Amino acid sequence: MDNRLVLTVLLVTLSWLSVGTYAQSTATSAAPGNNMTTASGNMTTAPGNNMTTAPVNMTTAPGNNMTTAPVNMTMAPGNNMTTAQVNMTAAPVNMTTAQVNMTAAPAASPLTANTTVENLETTINRTGCGTEQLCAAEPASCDPAVAGSCFFLSARQTSGQNFEFGLSGEADGYIAATLSSDSNLGGNDTTYICANNNSVVAFFSALLNNGMLTLSELNVNNVRGRVTGNRIQCTFAATVPDTSVTSRSNRASSLALAISTGPFNSTSGALGAPATRLQSPVVNLANPNTTIDNQVLNTTNATASSSNMTTQAGDNTTTASAAPPLTSNTTVESLETTINRTGCGTEQLCAAEPASCNPAVAGSCFFLSARQMSGQKFEFGLSGEADGYIAATLSSDSTLGGNDQTFICANNNSVVAFFSALLNNGMLTLSELNVNNVRGRVTGNRIQCTFAATVPDTSVTSRSNRAASLALAISTGPFNSTSGALGAPTTRLLSPVVNLANPNTTVVNQISTTTNAPTTSSTTTSSPITSTPTAPTPTMTTNHAITFQQSLMQAMLIAAGVLALFML
Predict the structure, then answer these.
(1) Residue 317 sits in the same domain as residue 385
(2) Within a domain: 80
(3) DSSP assignment of 192-256
(4) Residue 402 carries which DSSP code?
(5) What single-letter DSSP state applies at residue 106?
(6) Would you call the peptide bond into 55 cis, given omega within 30 degrees of 0 as the criterion?
(7) Cβ distance 365 to 447 under 8 Å?
(8) pLDDT tens figures, 173-199
(9) What is the extent of the structural domain holding 239?
(10) Which of 17, 223, 287, 345 falls between 20 and 30 A from 34, CA-CA?
(11) Alpha-carbon distance 142 to 169, whole Å?
């Protein structure tokens, strides 16, 4: 009997010790988790508060000290000088008079007119742009010293309203630089003209009014020029209009710049109507670091942009997007240069089939480029081989045919004819869209054209928060040059919805499979799902296994004790 009692007590004691050990182990494991979480929270909060407060005090202290010090230094000489109060009062009056003299300095006499042209020995280039002289160019970063299409204008202040200009561009007739006080060209605006007069530069000064040039003597001299092929370059000094009174700007040299080209009759000396190649908002000519944005022919938008130049960059972006669209003008001018891949991925978004083909090289290549000018306004380049037409379509949902904007360049007896239309259910319906500055060329069956257009704002009509998120498509179709009828388009390239404003976007040809775009989106989201931490799940499974193991051990001990009692 004593043995059974001792064995029973021993087994019960072992069972309770096992239960106690498990409880202690569980409590010990839980404690560090809670403590660690709390400590980490406290550590994060403390540095955040301290670090934020300290810089505020440091910023305030230098500001007060710096402001107070000059005041004390100014007062000290006053006390040391003559004790007469009248003398101290008179001194500031003299200082004020000196300031008047400094203000009057820019009003120096204007230059004397002399338009005799001397030989320009050196080629105009970009040296000093952004540091010594303001530069405007189309394309924006082109170098007038290098062969190729480049319209360029530089301005360097010599004194007051007197500036030195450099003008360069390719034209069969003339190139001209126009200065406007309000960014609306045509209100008797000062214009300087360099014409190709049998491979020699002829210089004219004129006023531009309602699209027509009227010769007028202006304050310009020191003219030099040269003609190389169809590239005209000239430099000259001129006194620019003082806009501090006639415009809202308080700068005397705040003007809008424009570069234009036009025909010139070397026999009669007649100047044809100018075609604008570059137009800027109102800028400060005296500031070499000014960035010039080409507003093309949209004079309404140029006015809006001019007021943005004095505000913060963030405000400019928002206002530009809300600017009025381009004015429609589908007159086709000659495209002087071949469309190519220059700037793809850095300055403009490019889509092509085959993907890396070059539209400047002979062979099958369907190509579309898009370069943002401002807001919803883009410059497009379209190239492809077709007997009828090539077309670029913009769609907000990657499903072609829902009244999507389409721009068409047709081969009209080896000359480009341009149309704007809406694509609906595979059929094109002509429609006036906001497009202008159209240029085109036909070489064999290769059609190329460039144009500026206002694209649809998709920030409201689609799920995207980008105003220029659109799908691109290139198509070809038949064109009847006699009746002007456009046949149904055949899609050659179709992209998913992409951000046109991002030149680095990679465009994948979806052909006619519109379902690929959503699939691509799903693939993009796979990485975050894969990277989701799964550590808590194994930890929870292990805890339940430990609990089960402890409970089983207790049951086995109790069962062994009962069995031993019966055996005794």
Answers:
(1) no
(2) no
(3) EEEEESSSSEEEEEEEEETTEEEE---SEEEEEEEEETTEEEEEEEEEPP-HHHHSS-S-TTEEE
(4) E
(5) G
(6) no
(7) no
(8) 999 999 998 878 888 999 999 999 999
(9) 117-321
(10) 17
(11) 11
CB proximity list for 118: less than 8 A, separation 6 or greater: 223, 224, 225
**pLDDT score for 562:** 61
For residue 280, is it within any domain? yes
505 contacts: CB under 8 Å, gap ≥ 6: 349, 498, 499
For residues 470 and 455, is the Cβ–Cβ distance under 8 A? yes
- Co-location of 461 and 427 in the same domain: yes
Residue 8 CB burial class (10 angstroms; 0-12, 13-18, ≥19): middle
Please enumerate in sequence order all residues whose Cβ is within 8 A of that of 432, keeping only pairs 6 or more positions apart, or say none.
328, 420
On whether both 288 and 366 belong to a single domain, the answer is no
Of 78-92, 335-349, 528-542, which has the strongest mean pLDDT? 335-349
- Closest by CA position to 281, among listed 375, 181, 188: 181
Q: How many residues does the chain have?
A: 568
- Count of domains for the chain: 2
In a domain, 554, yes or no: no
Residue keyed to tokens 């050659």: 492
Domain membership of residue 89 (yes or no) is no
The two three-digit tokens of residue 157, written as one number? 């202040």
268 shares a domain with 238: yes
Report the alpha-carbon distance of residue 339 to residue 380 in Å, rounded.
Answer: 10
Helix (H) or strand (E) holding 320: helix 313-321
Which DSSP state fits 173?
Answer: S
DSSP letter string over 423-457? EETTEEEE---SEEEEEEEEETTEEEEEEEEEPP-
- The overall average pLDDT reported for the chain is 74
pLDDT for res 37? 37
pLDDT given for residue 6 in this prediction: 64
pLDDT of residue 336: 87
Could you write out the three-class secondary structure of 479-511?
A: ECCCCCCECCCEEEEEEEEEECCCCCCCCCCCC
Burial class of residue 443, CB neighbours in 10 A (0-12, 13-18, 19+): exposed
Cβ(203)–Cβ(223) under 8 Å? Answer: yes
Place of tokens 């004194």: 159
Q: In this structure, are 498 and 419 located in the same domain?
A: yes
**Residue 28 pLDDT:** 40
Cα three-residue angle 545-551-557, rounded to 5 degrees: 135
Q: What is the CATH number of the domain that holds 126?
A: 2.60.40
Instruction: Tell me the per-residue pLDDT of 85-127, one tens digit each, with 9 for 90 and over.
Output: 434 343 443 444 334 344 444 466 889 999 999 999 999 999 9
CA angle 511, 515, 520 (to 5 degrees): 95
Phi/psi at 542 (5° precision): -65, -40
Judged by DSSP in three states, 514 sits in: coil
Q: Which of 277, 302, 321 is the endpoint of a domain?
A: 321
Determine the Cα–Cα distance for residues 129 and 145; give it in Å rounded to an integer: 13
